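Researcher: Batch entry, complex prediction.
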Amino acid sequence: MREMVEVGPGKIAARGWRLEDVALVPTRRTRDIDDVSTDWQMDAYHFEIPAVGHPSDATMSPATVIEMGRLGGLGVLNAEGLWCRYVDPSSILKELSEAAEDVAVERLQEAYREPVKPELIAERVNEIRAAGVTAAVRVSPQHTQELAPVAVEAGIDLLVIQGTIVSAEHVSSEDGVLNLKTYISDLDVPVVVGGATNYKTAMHLMRTGAAGVIIGVGSDEWSTTDAVLGIDVPMASAVVEAAAARRDYLDETGGRYVHLIADGEITDSGSIAKALACGADAVMLGSVLAEAAEAPAVGAWWHSAASHPKLPRGRFRSLTGADVEVPDMEALLYGPATSSEGNHNLFGALRRAMAKTGYTTVKEFQRADMVSYK
Amino acid sequence: MREMVEVGPGKIAARGWRLEDVALVPTRRTRDIDDVSTDWQMDAYHFEIPAVGHPSDATMSPATVIEMGRLGGLGVLNAEGLWCRYVDPSSILKELSEAAEDVAVERLQEAYREPVKPELIAERVNEIRAAGVTAAVRVSPQHTQELAPVAVEAGIDLLVIQGTIVSAEHVSSEDGVLNLKTYISDLDVPVVVGGATNYKTAMHLMRTGAAGVIIGVGSDEWSTTDAVLGIDVPMASAVVEAAAARRDYLDETGGRYVHLIADGEITDSGSIAKALACGADAVMLGSVLAEAAEAPAVGAWWHSAASHPKLPRGRFRSLTGADVEVPDMEALLYGPATSSEGNHNLFGALRRAMAKTGYTTVKEFQRADMVSYK
Amino acid sequence: MREMVEVGPGKIAARGWRLEDVALVPTRRTRDIDDVSTDWQMDAYHFEIPAVGHPSDATMSPATVIEMGRLGGLGVLNAEGLWCRYVDPSSILKELSEAAEDVAVERLQEAYREPVKPELIAERVNEIRAAGVTAAVRVSPQHTQELAPVAVEAGIDLLVIQGTIVSAEHVSSEDGVLNLKTYISDLDVPVVVGGATNYKTAMHLMRTGAAGVIIGVGSDEWSTTDAVLGIDVPMASAVVEAAAARRDYLDETGGRYVHLIADGEITDSGSIAKALACGADAVMLGSVLAEAAEAPAVGAWWHSAASHPKLPRGRFRSLTGADVEVPDMEALLYGPATSSEGNHNLFGALRRAMAKTGYTTVKEFQRADMVSYK
Amino acid sequence: MREMVEVGPGKIAARGWRLEDVALVPTRRTRDIDDVSTDWQMDAYHFEIPAVGHPSDATMSPATVIEMGRLGGLGVLNAEGLWCRYVDPSSILKELSEAAEDVAVERLQEAYREPVKPELIAERVNEIRAAGVTAAVRVSPQHTQELAPVAVEAGIDLLVIQGTIVSAEHVSSEDGVLNLKTYISDLDVPVVVGGATNYKTAMHLMRTGAAGVIIGVGSDEWSTTDAVLGIDVPMASAVVEAAAARRDYLDETGGRYVHLIADGEITDSGSIAKALACGADAVMLGSVLAEAAEAPAVGAWWHSAASHPKLPRGRFRSLTGADVEVPDMEALLYGPATSSEGNHNLFGALRRAMAKTGYTTVKEFQRADMVSYK
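Model: Structure tokens for the complex:
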């Protein structure tokens, strides 16, 4: 499949490209920007933009999940996050947002020591449903069996099962371990599951019957999965491999299309365009959403893995500053931009990238030509 | 054509080299610097140096267009720039030159909100023509049909149609969209059009009948096309591909030679030499001209795309400081240099590079040997 | 064997990968972290973690050697270090720990000018043996014949013969030079010897009868072997080559398994996982141990080669600060981590990396899949 | 010959490696450091170390040329430098050494405006000869016909003809241009000539009858040949190519051995070892000598091209500070080192590198094994 390098005799490694290693190349024709559509439909749910909120408490509160849905994207609340541990986590979020970077991980560990309250999950889901947007919550594989029923019962539309790495074949000496294949097929709501890292793991997760598969481990400059575990996922290659698995799975199933959601290296509108051009159907927005005026942690950012009690795997980015004027989520997604760094008007930029390369739908755009720098 | 890499199964990307990835290698012989000529002739117009001013208001005013012509190059005025929006933009340019970098993009957006005045285009063209130099103005593809006739009527010698990306095949659901092929062939003045990114787009633009094709999207450290759109053009490879298209087009037409103007990664005299050695006939000078004593924005620099109302795609470089002694445009182009960084005496350096590699004309110099670092 | 590049006609170089150039790829299945074992056995000695202390005085004192043994690893005391030159080096270590970085190398040279006292070697070994942990000391190849008998006599369990580069075939015009092959086979205790740099040198050292071979020259950002000698060892490739030599040596001897200990580029838990996945049986911990609360030089770090009287080859990293709260060695090896940079809970992280890639023993984990970034 | 990359259709570039891209790999055996010899003999002249002083006024004065000779190397005085323009340049050197970096190039241009005085060349040569060391001066190709006879008349042992790029075939429309081939063969003293950049230019220069050929254009971080001219010479590949030319020239002449002197990327003892291992017979020491206590510009450094009146091509490195204690030239060349950065004891380090890779002479060391990082 992918280019292989020989690290030494007998050890072959797949060569991986990151999104920053590639770029789009306009080539055939251009289009009117008004002829371009960024629509995305997964299962029964329709979205105006191929955007999913990464379930970190730094950006996804019930309020921002609702706002994201209202604006045409898919917000995801972390069922194991602060909103499902505390009746009102506002003061904790404020304290965290002001934490010094060198003690922030300890503060996060402290804040997440409070147990998850199932009744709060139900309450948050109700709040989101009441707003009329698609309701999705995230659970970790470890707590899926305990917490997912609560969320399903409360009426979620989509369940997101997301860990750093999720495999379809978890081998355990313990009894009663989650079997994703039977669990997902038995469930009443569509499931998005991940992260997968390459062709094989993506294919296995597709075979669980999931509606969507997350590709990647959320890598950005605040994720430390590589330093801690030695695991890293170059996104361009990972998405291309997963897209190859999707093609083969389509053939194997006679037409079942599984959606790919890229989670990692999404740092600006340019990387959104590249991830889709590699074959993703949508992208997960993490740190790029932390800048929104509505962000619950006022500009601070951390991955959910950053609060792990024994092995935290993420840095804390301190707040942008309460006095800085920041765009609201609508400007962030649809502009107008007052910054030229690719962090505002994310999907206006996507439309322009599609128009300049001559494509009018995201599905067609997955075929866009690319150039590589190494 | 170019070396290909497999990002993953089914996704092939062309491998691209930047100018900084290659260098000239002296190899056969050396020449006397006095035997070297940097002459350039496009259509009926003759220039002493293969240099075109990038149509940014930061460097190209009527006065600097005239000075550049007087010094043997080709200045280009932006018909959609401040000089064609305001009767006297001097105070605005001064204010912009003093803007703080973090609010500069908003200031630019504000300044360019004023509509373009066709009568000012005519007035500026007249001023340039009166000075006896080649008169060229730039219009964007979107406003070509509206503004180009005004410029032609006013007596320009050359029309530059330049957008970030221009394709010969623009597909639109609207009526009355610009068809470059018929438009250019019907026009009375020679046209330079771009930017093109590779063999195919360069070839298509040559077939419109253009006298010159711009290669690249003006990328330098103040351009953010990559971050915003995910589009990037490694210049060494882009120019080499366009030169291959020029050869094939020469054959196809039985001898029609289209000039290639490299716009991007031109940061010093070394990169001018490399771009020409890759096959360009001339280079566009952007930020390197902002240092001239005559520069209308006193050392500040921005790309024209930096002022886009909804999706700005360029950073603002603040002024070098009013108190710093800067060279005039003549010293910048012809020396003597008092800096050893490749930013002064740009074309004296080109002559020396040609002499050291053994070539006496720009056309022959396009065959110079190169070394690559990766 | 390895990929070759042609630097020029007639000069072929093996292409080398560093640990930072590769990463682990989860692929087949995942495991319960409780099913994972990090056990390591070399000769008669059993360890709970595959960890060897790099014999620098900055981290390995009799007390920390004992603590490391107590915690399940293998500490190594430098028989040519300060503890075997001074009856009580505490005040010297304290002074060194407070040295300014620009004069630190001279201070080290001064401190190590004091001769080694054989009676102190015996005393230190006795102290370590009395604590009931595996007793290992390091001697340099130059002083092996003089000092090793003292250590053996004192009752060490393992002898470590370590220089920057050790070859099995040392050619000398002098008489009486150390012949590793006869020396090691005649010795009563098992020997670990190195550093080796590739297949050939690893194979030669295996044939001396050593129980373990050290791969690498301890390269990290404080080692300057490359700048001083032009010698460098990319660890991923070096370990993979040595693992290939181990396979061939197993075949050649009908089953004699030699342990590989990676010494270099071990900067965090992620690099430990990668080194093992390349084929190492254990890793040498250098600068990562300097952060422990028990570290004899209070956070300062230097390689043993940094004190060379005529040709020092290592920088001095100044202390982390006496007022900074640092984890004890137990937290550093087993957590819980309060840092997310991969520098705490080193072997908890290894267990998790093994679980996520689906392996339950270190030996199996040597087969883990990898991705390469170049 | 060398690996080729296709920058695009029809433009092939040789792939080049720098010294920093490769490293030495110990592999066969090790040697006693006392069995290693760094002797070098060129023509009738014998040296204890393969070291030539780069003829910059920053390091090479009559006094340091003599000291370098006394210490076993070859100093070279620039016949077009300050010592041959001023009766006593001491005060000018002192002023230059204290120049601010941003105006230093202009100060250099000013200082070198004073004409060269032939009688001073003779005087300096006499001073050097009187000290009993090998007397060598450098002239530029442009002034060889005017100044070389003066130097020869004064009794130099070796003539160095060095420009940025020198070709054996200089084509000129002027009469009376230097023909290196006839000039060198007619001369009574052996000539060292350069810089050459690859196989072809090295071969051509060998055929002039030169005793030695300089490879490279002196590139280091203070040289700006790349930025100004677009010309760059990756040293590892350039030296390997020149060594291939030497082999072919040996065959062609039935045994005439031309010495290769590497001038560029020599920043520490590690790079000296790498350049020799690539095939050089000796190295030119530039900025590394500026640190010597005897350096005429007290730690400041500039290339001779940095003072060019119209096109300076080198930066000015300001002095290390009069109050800093610096080693004398002897410690710099032979140690002991009090720094571990590879800048002291340059040739003690070379001996150790040769011993660790198992070679006892520089000629044999040219076969040393290498590893490449890309």
